[in-house]
Design goal:
Elements lengths: L1 H19 L3 E3 L2 H29 L5 H19 L3 E3 L2 H21 L3 H6 L1 H7 L5
Antiparallel strand pairs: 1-2
Length: 132
Amino acid sequence: MNLILHLLLDAAVIFGLAYLMPQVDVKNFGTAILIAVLLGLLNFFLGWIIRFPLNLVTFFLLTGIVRIVVTALILKLIDSFMDSFTIVGFWPALVIALAVAVAGTLIDRSAPTQEMVDSGYVVGLLSNLRIG
């Protein structure tokens, strides 16, 4: 469930920023979902290969910044092999990567933890919202 939420949120952020930024062009929301899936897959399979040496150079002090820069590079890579997605320049890709990171952090912090579910806290909150 959390994966689907992340993919939809990433797609919404990409699509929304494409609407706001003239340097970014996304054909439709389906394309934004495909971009979010590719971004997740490439970050999983390729991102750590790029991030690890950069984190070694920075002595793991700039891990968050390295992660955002690598995500921007992966967005530019996706741009290079997709016709329905265009980013003109590196800065717009960096803005999108930063927005995706912030949105992901907000979702991760607001999602209930396993301890909350096990203790019944989440069920207790939902049971107070009875309709009817």
